[in-house]
């Protein structure tokens, strides 16, 4: 029986997710207790974006890998095209209605909308870089470790910020929905070889859900 040999980068990326979930969970909890829920929430995301999404990706796949994951997608939306479009746009459209986007926009000030837009751009980009791009680069063509494994942990990591602002539908329900989202966006990234469209869809999804609301409005979470 042929043994499986993993590179150092692959081992790091297999070990990292549970550590990510644990460290972010306690970071959110500790910062919220010390700084208050809104600042603690933002501080938790800054820790997640900088340490895990950016630095882990940079240190494992390097600058060349970061550039490669943003290459022009081919095929554009994966094949079949119709399925790729559904997987990209379906979550965005669903979020628009589920989160009652029109009503929440009317209740939001211009400053809140700006914060939500900035949050969506940073979070959507950083998450796709780590959970889709980095794993696809490190596990070329491997649907188990490059697609399924990070999709599951992408969902489980969403438990961490909910220690500050729990989802109205329940923590585990939100995590399950995030796993499904990871599977949807991950399919497009795997089939197209690029995270360009998943990044765009993730940004739209976060803004449609006004994910940044919790930074300025206590008790409101996506």
Provide a brief overview of the structure:
The chain has 222 residues and is mainly α. It has helices at residues 8-35, 37-69, 81-98, 101-107, 110-138, 144-157, 171-192, 196-208, 213-216. α5 runs antiparallel to α8 (196-208) and α6 (144-157) packs antiparallel against α7.
Please provide a written account of the structure.
With 222 residues, the chain is mainly alpha-helical. The protein has one domain. It contains 9 helices and no strands. Helix 1 (8-35) packs antiparallel against helix 2 (37-69) and helix 3 packs antiparallel against helix 7. It starts with 7 loop residues before the first helix and ends in a 6-residue tail after the last helix. 41% of the residues are buried.
Key phrases:
222 residues; mainly alpha
Query: Which bin fits the share of residues in helices?
Result: over 70%
Strand count, sense and barrel status of the largest sheet are: none
Distance between the termini: 48 Å
Q: How many DSSP-defined strands?
A: 0
**Domain module count:** 1
Number of helices: 9
Taken as a percent bin, the fraction of beta residues is under 5%
Radius of gyration: 17 Å
Run of helices and strands: HHHHHHHHH
| Low-confidence sequence ranges | 217-222
Large-scale geometry: globular
- Summarize model confidence as the mean pLDDT: 91
By secondary-structure content and strand pairing, the structural class works out as mainly alpha
